[in-house]
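Same chain as my last thread, 445 residues:
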Amino acid sequence: MKLTILGGGGFRVPLVYGALLGDHAEGRVTQVVLHDVDDRRLYAVARVLAEQAAGEPDAPEVSTTTDLDEALRGADFVFSAIRVGGLDGRANDERVALSEGVLGQETVGAGGIAYGLRTVPVAVDIARRVARLAPDAWVINFTNPAGLVTEAMSRHLGDRVIGICDSPVGLGRRIARVLGADPREAWIDYVGLNHLGWVRGLHVKGRDELPRLLADLPLLGSFEEGRLFGADWLQSLGVIPNEYLHYYYFNRETVRAYQQAEKTRGAFLHDQQARFYTQVGTPDTPALATWHRTRAEREATYMAENRESAGAGDREEEDLSGGYEKVALALMRAVARDERTTLILNVRNRSTLSVLDGDAVIEVPCLVDAQGAHPVSVDPLPDHATGLVCAVKAVEREVLRAAESGSRTHAVKAFALHPLVDSVNVARRLVDGYTAVHPGLAYLK
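reply #2:
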């Protein structure tokens, strides 16, 4: 099978390739095509992959190209992991938002809207090209904001585009671990949007073990989310929120922490990855060892400002190993080989959540087989979650309208309606600020 990775010069691509190296079953990926607009990044990542493959029997063949149509033609699967505007764009997203006193995180709040506005037109172009050049391909979307981008692409690819995120998997794994359960045997009752979801139950052998966790304050405070949100708040909610809900529940504290940080997350990653690509661009630099060292630093500092503001301490060792590549490979295996499995994915709602229409992309457990991902029926959202989900989905729809029409009015409306933007005037200034620093937003009139 041919796998095309868009954003193939991205730092996390070796995670995907490493997962592929362990797959020796029939119907596996034999050809990997890396596409990127930056040939320098392609060269660096291809060096890392070559060192990963050294000594591995039947390692998938790797090629690189800057020609998008060439990369897509004949693909069986397409992983979309693009970053429109690069890390410069992310750093600008953060800076403009923080100058207005609002959150600039890349998927949540003003930063997520800005990222979506410049990413959606590119993602839609990719979807149209896939439909023309590889109509039988399955697109697995990694690109953030994952739910929004997947919904934009689904308007052209239908159910053949599926969004993934490792955050719900990591949350379920941590809950199972603290309860002494095997994550592989647990059914995670998870519902929401990407980066806006809640675990409502963790079922092991037909028994929901989550009430036992919620009733035990010391146990509840012993893992990442308990330390991040506070055990008493989790008891009040009666569910375990995705870590990204910290931006909503503790917004003032998080914004202040970001404003006081020496560097924003985007600026940190920009400088860190600039060093990595420069180093690996030198032929005598050990590429794989340099990548491992850089990745360890990246993972250890993930959401550092949130953990600092909450006094949550360092990340646990078990959470430094990533996981999104495992979700992607499990999804690809299930579709390609009809190896039926259950995964938490971003898919069209159909009739799963009654408060949203059928085309809205949501993040829920899905049964996956050769026909794709099928959302599992879930109970209605808790009242406190319904408001947030509906509000953020309304924002996403305004982003899609703005990207489709080029309307500045819809862009302002998207910012103004977001729960973490507290003034229409701030929304107008955000649009002005972002269009000034992002050439990719010149289409807004």
